[in-house]
Every structure is written in structure tokens, then in C-alpha cells.
Design goal:
The protein contains 11 helices and 5 strands. It is of the alpha/beta class and 223 residues long. The N and C termini lie far apart (37 Å).
Length: 223
């Protein structure tokens, strides 16, 4: 397991430092300036990069170019789709709110450590909407040629978790809706990933949106 580094700056105005929530999420995490993190971090480490750094895109590119095995999560005080897509396109492993709660930050960190992609529910929904739009434009003839995702290997509860996650819900939200613990959600989600052969939430969304059966699942109300 790698270390978690927060890219801080004492010379920025105002100074950039990790929030109390980030410190609670990663009690063993470290925060330092650009030169220190660039030289000390290594493959497998997770670098938390706030967009408060004016040159955050350049820093993101440099971190990954020097050591492709680093995982970088971009943090924004006002997340929006265009910025999130830009971060992901540049190679970020995740994109989330700068002041997210510790539980969510830990989820993002665990996803990044495993090499999975993490994006906020808005971007997940955008992917779902774009996939539906493409399928709609392709017409019935094209969608009929797409294999329906085989969910027979999943238990009924795993199907519920997969469906909720594909709608953009966080682990905490899934736990609340299904009245189970977050630990149980993580266990079910891990089983879903393994059984469906997907690596992360985004691949799960695309997998479940691949056919009419998936679109029907995504549109059903929660029980």
C-alpha cells in the first residue's frame, strides 16, 4: 500500500493546506511542497492535487510523466464536469470535492490505490446519459446487436448495489438506501467487479449501459 501525499503550498495566497477532513481520512498522510513531493513520492503513492495551484494541470502531467505508477487525485472547491473531464483526460485517477467528508475521501483513496478510476456522481450520470444518447441515436437495429449484460452470477443484493452505483450513488448513499453498512457495500461492490470483470465504477456504468436490459435496470426505482 502506498502513501498519501497532499500537495500544499505556504507561498500561495492564501496558503494551500489539507483540510481537517483530509487529515481525518488519512491520519498517516503527509503534506508538503512541490519539490518535496516530486522527489519523495513513488509508484503506488497517491498524490492529492488541489486545483488551487494555478498550474495544477502542468503539475499533474509532470507527476505522471516522471513516475507513471503514481496515482493522482485532483481536488476542487467547486467541482464541475468540464474540469473533471480535463483532469481525467490528463491522467488523474480521481476527481472530487476538496472538502469531501472523510468517508468519501477514504473511498476515493482506496479506489486510486487499486488503480480504479473515481469520478463524482455528476460525471457518472453524464457518462450514463451520453451512453443512452448514443444507443438511442444508433436505433433499435443497432441496440439489438449488443449483448445484454449477464447478471446471473450476481446475487439479488449485488444487483441492487450495482444498479445503485451505476446511478452515481456513493458507497454511503448506497448503504443508506439499502439499509446496510458501508463495509457491506464495499464487499458487495468488490464481488460485482470481480464477477462482471470490470475494474471500477466507470467500467461498471458502461457495462450496465451496454444493452436494453441495463437501461431498464438503471431506470427502475429503488425498492
Amino acid at each position: 500500500m502506498g502513501l498519501h501525499y497532499f500537495l500544499a503550498s505556504s507561498i500561495s495566497k492564501p496558503p494551500i493546506s489539507p483540510s481537517e477532513r483530509w487529515r481525518l481520512a488519512f491520519p498517516d498522510g503527509k503534506w508538503s511542497n512541490w519539490a518535496s513531493i516530486k522527489s519523495k513520492s513513488k509508484s503506488g503513492d497517491v498524490i492529492w492535487l488541489p486545483v488551487l495551484h494555478a498550474d495544477w494541470m502542468s503539475k499533474l502531467s509532470q507527476l505522471l510523466k516522471a513516475e507513471p505508477g503514481r496515482r493522482v487525485v485532483v481536488l476542487s472547491p467547486l467541482p464541475y464536469d468540464a474540469e473533471g473531464l480535463r483532469a481525467i483526460n490528463l491522467g488523474a485517477q480521481g476527481y472530487c470535492h476538496l472538502h469531501a467528508v472523510p468517508e468519501l475521501l477514504r473511498d476515493v483513496g482506496q479506489a486510486a490505490e487499486s488503480g480504479a478510476l473515481w469520478i463524482g456522481p455528476e460525471l457518472v450520470e453524464r457518462i450514463v446519459a451520453a451512453t443512452r444518447d448514443l444507443l438511442g441515436r444508433a436505433g433499435p437495429a443497432a441496440t439489438e446487436t449488443l449483448p445484454e449484460p449477464d447478471l446471473s452470477a450476481l446475487s439479488p443484493r449485488e444487483v441492487e448495489v450495482a444498479r445503485a452505483v451505476s446511478e452515481g450513488k456513493t458507497n454511503k448513499e448506497v448503504a443508506r438506501v439499502l439499509d446496510i453498512s458501508e463495509r457491506t457495500v464495499k464487499a458487495h461492490l468488490g464481488a460485482v467487479f470481480e464477477k462482471l470483470g470490470v475494474r471500477d465504477r466507470v467500467q461498471l456504468v458502461l457495462h450496465l449501459s451496454a444493452g436494453n436490459h441495463a437501461l431498464h435496470l438503471a431506470g427502475q426505482p429503488h425498492n
